[in-house]
Structures are given as C-alpha cells and as structure tokens.
Protein 1
Amino acid sequence: MGLVHAGNIIEAVKLGTKEMQEEWKAMPEEDRLMLSAMMNKMSLSEADFSAQIKANGLLVIEGPSVTLTVKQEHKDDNGTSTSAVTQKFKMDGAACRVSR
C-alpha cells in the first residue's frame, strides 16, 4: 500500500503474482491510469498502514495462501463504525506475492 500511496504503481505491480502482472500489462493504458489514481487516493502511507497492521492486523497462512486482514475503527460525532481491509497473498517459492 505504501508504494501505491507514494505513486510508485509500477513497483507495486512487480510485487504481484505473475497472473496479476500480466493482467495489468494487458489492461488499456487509460484503464491503468484511472485505476492507479483511484488506488492512490484510497491508499494509506506506509507508516499509517504499518501502524494499523500492528494495532489491528491478523495474518493467516494456510499452505501457499496468505490473508492479511486489518480492522479499522472510525469514530465521529455520529458514533463508531468499523471496516476491514483484506489483502490476499500467494507464496511463490521464497516470495510472498500479492494476489486477488
């Protein structure tokens, strides 16, 4: 998420599985630009996301499948709400790659 937030989408894509990288490359440039802008806007800085993972993250490893779930709590004048960010990963040899 930190790379996306910093605008380094090309580096972020390299962390994905081979299938995800191929999908990204096959996408029309207009779609990649739109998706990059949306992901950048919705992402957190590396420091903020790291703090959230440390406070409320859960990493589950089941064979080659890995899931990171980070719960987020939002408080305002209307009360408190919770949401969760989930990211799936796939073990690829010694590497852990972002997947869908």
Protein 2
Amino acid sequence: MACMLRLQEFALATALLAVAQGPDRQPTGNLELSLHAEAILQGVPQAFQFLLVNNTGHSVRVPVPSFNCEDAYGGSISLRLHFTPLVPGPSTAFNCSGDGPFGVPITVRIKEWQIVAPGYALSLKVDRKHIAWAVVHRDGPLPNAEEHAVQPGMTPYLYDGSNPGTYEFWAIYTPPFVNTSDQRVLQEIGVDYPRAKLTTVHVSFVRTQ
C-alpha cells in the first residue's frame, strides 16, 4: 500500500512538473533582463544598457528588440520611470508601435534573429542620440564585439532629467509573438527563443538641483 502511494505521488509530481514547464517540457524563462545606468550627470543617468542574458546551457535565438516602441514582431524593451519631483511639475509620456510582416514563414523570420550562446547576452545601448545593439559576454563587453545601429530613422527617447527629484527606473522586455503553429515548427527544428515577459529590479537616482 505504501509503495502504491509513493508511485502515485511520483506520478503526480511528474505531471505537475510537465505542466509547469509547458507542453514542450522546456522552461519558459530562458533569458534574464538586466538594466545598467551609464553617463551619470548631476545625479541622473543619460544613457542605459539593457542586457538579455542567456543563462541556459544552449543557444537561444533572439530578435533585436525595438526600444520604447511596441513591436509584436520582434519584441521590445521599454524604459519605465517613476519621478517624484522636489517641486511639482508636468509629466511627460511616450509610446509608439511598429510591427513587421507577419506573413513571413517562421523559418525565414528566425534567420534575422541573433544567436546568443550560453553565457552571452544581447545588449541594447541607448542614449539621447543613438540606439545600438551587440552580442556581448554577460560579464563584460567583448573586445571585437561590433555594435549595430537600430532603427536609424528613430529619435531615441529617454526622459526629461532636468528637474530636481527622485528618478526610479526599471525596464520591461516583451518577447516576439509566435503563434501556436510556428511554436511547433521551432520545437521540431530545435530552436529556442524568448517566451516570457521580463522585468528588471528598480534603481533610483536623485537630482538635487
């Protein structure tokens, strides 16, 4: 009787594990998003680096995400800000959207995605004038890593950091949309890709004047 109960418990645990990992039995959280503030001026950053880090033991194909622009085709990274002014004033907001041609077969679509090896990351660097991406090691930039411009016609948007107060930043990554049939195709050919929405920890900076 005890043996039968243990077998039932094992079967239940196995079933729960399969449900938690999804129908293909692979974890959905295969990337980690981190936010790094750069070029600190008068207490607040003027540039940011976003890293989509591959912490798995296999390569993950990642499309270069848009910045502060909703894009279901390639995914997006958005910078969020909660500002607490020393002196109350007006707030600003920004948003855009842009999707690609969804009729493209997934086997063609992934040819434009970047192959991020284990221990590496897809880096998106943004300042007020430039947006660039590169594949780098998670522990630091590669000596020969080439940066590539993203959306050359787009004016990078960060925030208005001219007012004294507390600036609390965090970032959100939204993965590309992949429909059910395309998911099966990628599973059959052994391609892993971003699946989960990710959020960074919050970091705060203070401008006093």
Protein 3
Amino acid sequence: MDTTNYKVAAGIAANIADEETAIKGYYELLSTLIDPNDILEIKEIISDEKNHAQKLKAILLKYDGNVPTATD
C-alpha cells in the first residue's frame, strides 16, 4: 500500500494545527489590547489565519484517502 498520500496529509494536518495554534494566540492577545486599531488589526490577522486553515482543510481532502467524517 502506498502511504505517500498519508504523509502528505500528515504534513497538511500539521500546518492546520499550526494555523489553529496561531489563532488561539491571537485571541489571547486580543484580551490584552486597548487600542481599537490594534484590535482591528489582530482581528484581520485572525480572519486570515482562519482562511488559511479552511484552504488547507480543502486540500487535505485530496490526500486523506477518503477517510469519512463522523457525519458521512
């Protein structure tokens, strides 16, 4: 059995985890900021990170061997 795609999927999943970790850190940072402009900037960064995670999740589906989700 060729496991190359699973290795690619694992790499993509690791990058998704990195994006999620970054998002968590930015949410924590938001609770410490006072300047409304800084808050807006961080919210924009969070939006970007969430977009990255969504794109990676879509790519992941091409490499995960069609492993179904619990709702499938």
